[in-house]
Design goal:
Number of helices: 12
Number of domains: 4
CATH topology of the largest domain: Alpha-Beta Plaits
CATH class of the largest domain: Alpha Beta
């Protein structure tokens, strides 16, 4: 039994001979396995009891070494088999997790109508679209985290099965679970503060959602406020919600404490970077507040901002949307601080330059041009802008909204001049762009 225990222990077993009177004892790991006396030495033909005991001890050492080597080889082979088997199991579970995540993502993408909204009584805190997007992100993140956990577990099992790498397994466990344990201890220590923070965050979400729904009702005309027109409800909603969020963080920041940890320093750096990157947006919003609440631009009127002219389709806190003849443009309010804004009103001016021969310098020609411009739009005006060797250049202006006004004005002017048999000079007729009229003005 002692020899079997020593062989199966896997440790080096010390075999020694000890004399006790006339007897000699063979001891393995502090356990006596055999005792020899003088009669045993005489029967074996050895010269003494000590010689017999040393001979038996040597044979025991050889047998133990062979048995331990065979056990070590079997244990190594078994460990390798366990590593391979655990790797196959890990791959199986990793594949299953991937399949489950793919099924969940496909279900969320194919059945968006089955994703409910998160409501607090009658207030919709989280919309179904936002909840669905969060679930998709959580599904992808869970797939990655579970696979990393499976890979970590397999590596930990493989390292712990072999004696030379068992120390690395302990270090890896401490490297991974040490910070997690510290974080868990801090979270448990600050549990009351976390509960308060969660309740405050839920209250903030509900309040921001309620403010948004309230001003949406004002914008749709469901709620009437004497001090707030319906067209200003949308920008006011953004300002009020931003003020609520900023006030929440200003009040909640002192409650967190002044812990000078790495997380706090990283958060401070992120906030500073966001503040610097958001400076143009904040500046544009500040300029937009003056434009929106000062009613400097009205939807439906025409304006020229930064060299782009068109009809104002929408005015928000950040930009103005202009619809021109060559497309729709979104111009930030910050651009109006460096470039002038020209208000053209509901009916923008349309100008055409007509170059005639010098012999046509009389009031009848001006009346003819003014009458043709009056047929196109209101407030017709004729100006003599240039007189040179090429002829007399008149600028004919009429006010009219809509596409194609300049082309119609050119056609009517040419028809009127042709009917009166008034010849055009070499320069002919040219449409004056809005930006050119603004520069000359």
């Amino acid at each position: 039994m002692a020899l079997r225990a020593a062989a199966e222990s896997g440790e080096h077993a010390a075999v020694r001979v000890e004399r006790r009177g006339d007897d000699a004892l063979v001891i393995v790991s502090d356990k006596t396995i055999v005792t020899f006396g003088p009669e045993d030495a005489a029967a074996s033909g050895e010269a003494s009891v000590a010689a017999l005991a040393e001979d038996v001890a040597g044979r025991v050492r050889v047998a133990l070494a062979k048995e331990q080597s065979r056990s070590a080889a079997l244990l190594t082979l078994l460990s390798v088999a366990l590593v391979v088997l655990s790797g196959m199991v890990a791959l199986f579970f990793a594949r299953k997790i991937g399949q489950l995540a793919d099924r969940a993502s496909a279900f969320l993408e194919q059945h968006p109508e089955r994703i409910p909204a998160i409501r607090l009584q009658s207030i919709e805190v989280v919309r179904p679209e936002s909840f669905r997007a969060a679930m998709l992100i959580a599904t992808k993140a869970a797939r990655v985290l579970f696979r990393l956990g499976i890979a970590y577990g397999w590596v930990l099992i493989g390292l712990s099965l072999f004696e030379p790498t068992r120390g690395y397994a302990e270090r890896l466990s401490g490297f991974v679970f040490g910070p997690l344990y510290s974080l868990l201890a801090r979270l448990i220590g600050s549990l009351p503060l976390l509960v308060v923070a969660v309740i405050a965050a839920i209250a903030l979400i509900v309040l921001v959602r309620f403010v948004g729904l309230f001003f949406d009702g004002v914008a749709r005309g469901q709620t009437t406020l004497d001090w707030l027109p319906a067209d200003l409800a949308a920008p006011t909603s953004i300002l009020v919600r931003a003020a609520v969020v900023i006030a929440f963080f200003l009040v909640a920041a002192p409650l967190v404490g002044a812990d000078d940890g790495a997380l706090v320093r990283a958060g401070t750096a992120v906030i500073a970077a966001l503040a610097l990157s958001a400076t143009p947006v904040v500046a544009s919003a500040a300029a937009g507040i003056v434009v929106v609440y000062g009613r400097r631009l009205s939807v439906g009127d025409h304006a020229e901002i930064g060299g782009r002219a068109g009809r104002v389709r929408a005015v928000s806190l950040l930009e103005v949307e202009l619809e021109g003849e060559d497309g729709t443009f979104r111009i930030p309010h910050l651009y109006s601080l460096v470039r002038p804004t020209r208000l053209l009103g509901p009916e923008p001016p349309v100008s055409v330059e007509v170059t005639l021969e010098k012999t046509t310098l009389d009031e009848e020609v001006r009346d003819l041009l003014r009458e043709a411009a009056g047929a196109v739009g209101s407030r017709p005006r004729v100006e003599l802008v240039r007189l040179d060797a090429e002829g007399a250049c008149y600028r004919v202006t009429a006010h009219r909204a809509g596409a194609g006004a300049s082309s119609e004005l050119v056609v009517l002017l040419v028809e009127a001049l042709s009917a009166a048999e008034i010849p055009l000079a070499k320069a002919g007729v040219r449409v004056v762009p809005t930006s050119s009229r603004a520069a000359r003005a």
